[in-house]
Design brief:
The protein is an alpha/beta fold and 184 residues long. The chain has a single domain, classed as 3-Layer(aba) Sandwich (Rossmann fold), CATH 3.40.50. 29% of the residues lie in helices and 20% in strands. A 5-stranded parallel sheet has the order 5-4-6-7-8, sandwiched between helices. The longest helix is centred in the middle third of the chain and has 15 residues. The chain is globular. The protein starts with 5 loop residues before the first strand and ends in a 5-residue tail after the last helix. InterPro entries: DUF6668 (IPR046609). It holds the Pfam family DUF6668.
C-alpha cells in the first residue's frame, strides 16, 4: 500500500483499505478461501456507525439487525445488503455521515449494498444550532433521515420506560428486516 493508506483486518474478515480521512474502505476480495460468499445477505438490516459512539450498537440492541461497526458489510460474513448509516448530531458526527454517503456515491462499498436511510441520534438534550440543522437538511436531500431525540436514561445505562415515537417510527421503516439476524 505505501501511499498513506491503512489495511485493517480482523480474523475471518476481508481486508479493508482506507486512506487518510476515509472512514470506510473497499473490501479487497479474491484473496480468501474458495468457500467465501461473494454477495451480501438479503436478510436483515445492518447498522453502520459513521463514527465510533454513533449509536449503531444501541439500535441493534433495541431494534434487532446486525451491528456492522464502522465499516461496510462483509459478504464473507453474510452481513445484510440493506443498511442504515448512524451518526450523532454534533458537527463531527454529521461530517462523518457525509463522508460515508460520499464514499457510497463514489461506489466505494461492496456490490449489492443498499442504503435504507440515515439515523441521526441527538448528542445532547435540546434543539440544534442553525448550522447543524443546515447540514441535516443537506443530508435529507441525499437520503431519508430519521432523527432520534436525546434519551436521558441511556446516559446512565438504563432502558427508557417507553421508546420515543421517533424510534417506534424507525421500527416501521426497518420492519421485519431488523429481526432477521440479531447479534449476541
Amino acid at each position: 500500500m505505501g501511499n498513506g493508506s491503512v489495511a485493517l483486518q480482523r480474523p475471518g474478515a476481508s481486508t479493508m483499505r482506507s486512506g487518510p480521512g476515509e472512514p470506510f474502505g473497499v473490501p479487497a476480495y479474491g484473496d480468501g478461501p474458495a468457500w467465501r460468499r461473494d454477495s451480501l445477505s438479503e436478510d436483515g438490516i445492518g447498522w453502520i456507525g459513521a463514527h465510533g459512539g454513533a449509536g449503531a450498537s444501541t439500535l441493534t440492541r433495541l431494534l434487532g439487525g446486525t451491528d456492522i461497526g464502522c465499516r461496510w458489510p462483509d459478504p464473507a460474513l453474510a452481513e445484510p445488503a440493506q443498511v442504515m448509516v448512524v451518526g450523532r448530531t454534533n458537527s463531527d458526527g454529521l461530517r462523518a455521515v457525509s463522508r460515508a454517503l460520499h464514499a457510497m456515491k463514489d461506489g466505494r462499498h461492496p456490490a449489492g449494498m443498499r442504503l435504507v436511510g440515515v439515523v441521526l441520534i441527538a448528542d445532547a438534550p435540546g434543539g440544534l444550532p442553525a448550522p447543524l440543522l443546515g447540514r441535516i437538511r443537506l443530508l435529507r436531500s441525499i437520503a431519508p433521515v430519521h432523527r432520534v431525540p436525546w434519551i436521558p436514561s441511556y446516559r446512565v445505562g438504563e432502558e427508557p420506560k417507553r421508546l420515543p415515537r421517533q424510534l417506534t417510527r424507525l421500527v416501521t421503516v426497518v420492519g421485519p428486516r431488523a429481526e432477521a439476524r440479531r447479534q449476541p
